[in-house]
Amino acid sequence: MDPKNAKGIPYGADGNREWSNGLFGCFDDCGTCLLSWCCPCIVYAQNKSRYEHLDRQNGPHPSGGDSCNGDCFIHGCLTFWGCGWVLQMGQRGTLRHRYRISGGGCGDCLTACCCTPCELTQEAREIELEESVYRGNFKA
After folding, report:
1. Is 24 helix (H, G, I), strand (E, B) or coil?
2. pLDDT at 140 (0 to 100)
3. 101 forms bridges with which residues in the sheet?
4. Dihedrals φ, ψ of 10, to 5°?
5. Beta bridge partners of 17
6. What domain of life is recorded for the organism (predicted)?
7. Contact between 93 and 108 (Cβ < 8 Å)
C-alpha cells in the first residue's frame, strides 16, 4: 500500500490524482473543521508540523503535531490582517506535490482564501491517511 495514496485513488494520465476527501467532506471531521473556523492558525501549524515530520522521518509526528509555535504565531498575525490564506496557499501546493494531487496555484489561492476551514480540514485528513498507514491502523 502506498502511504501517500492510502485509499488507492487512481492516477490520471498526468500522473496525478484527486484528493482522498472532498473539500466539503470537512463536515465528516467536525472537530478539526470547528477549530479551523475559530483558530485557523492552530490547525495550519499542526498540519505543517505533521507534514514536515512525515517528510523528514517517514512516520507520524509522535504528539500529533506542534500547534503553538512560530508558524501558529505568524499565521495568526497574518490572519489578523486578512492574509493568513497566503501561507495556506503555499502549504496546499506543497501537499498537492507530495501526494501527487491534481490542481494548481489559482485553485490553491481560491480555496485557501474563500474556504479556509474546509481547506485546512481537507489537508489534515490527507495527512491523517498517510499517518494511519505508518501506524498500521488504516481502514479502507
Report:
1. helix
2. 64
3. 17
4. -65, 145
5. 101
6. Eukaryota
7. yes
Per-residue pLDDT tens digits for 19-50: 999 999 988 999 999 999 999 999 999 999 99
Note whether 110 and 85 are within 8 A (CB): no
Please, how many CA atoms are within 13 Å of residue 98, restricted to the half-sphere of its CB?
A: 21
What residue ranges of the chain have pLDDT lower than 50?
none
The three cell numbers of residue 43 are 490547525
**pLDDT for position 56:** 94
pTM recorded for the entire structure? 0.93
Q: Which long-range contacts (CB under 8 A, 24 or more apart) does 31-35 make?
A: 32/120, 32/121, 32/124, 32/125, 33/117, 33/118, 33/121, 34/117
Cα gap 3→71, rounded to integer Å: 26
- Residue 109 main-chain phi, psi, to 5 deg: -60, -50
Q: Where are the domains of the chain?
A: 24-133
Distance CA 5, CA 18 (A): 10
Quick one: pLDDT at residue 135?
A: 86
